[in-house]
Amino acid sequence: MPTAVMTCHGPGLICTVRQPHRAVAGYWTAGGRVMRTVLALMIAGWLTTVSSWVAAELPRLALPLGDELFQLELVDDPISRQQGLMGREALDTNGGMLFDFPAGTRPAIWMRNMLISLDLLFVDDQGQLVQIFEQVPPCQAMPCPIYRAEQPLRFVIELAAGSAERLGLQPGAQLELGELTLRPAPPQ
């Protein structure tokens, strides 16, 4: 256990001796082991809480696409939209995410920090499929490509890569968004 710290500086080598604070010195004693254990448990509890926030259950929406029913996570706030599917190692065949953007937005998506390839479906406020980006790969290094809507839209649907082709989805298709088109767009 250190008992004192000496530091010297300056042209005349001015030296100062500083005694460690009792709490710091006690960190290395038997009582300090208890303190370290308590600290480790507190950090573990905090990390568990944070991870539960990150993995918090998002609202889900059952959405028919092609001849299949998809369970899409709905994100309609800036923080959830920013997080999106980042860090996910897999996506269910009939899973995905539906982003609800404020009215008048030209959504832009990038694949930074993504681990899986996706199909991106850009959909207007009436449920019409306007634009599709298929088999979009994760971005490994900056700068990352940006996939932007050609016009203001309300929704972007992210599905597992290959889903749009498998389902036969084409621009111009009308998607059955149900009550989603009736609810107001999220605020800016």
Automatic annotation (TrEMBL):
Which top-rank group of organisms is this from? Bacteria
In this record, what's one Pfam family? DUF192
Protein known as:
DUF192 domain-containing protein
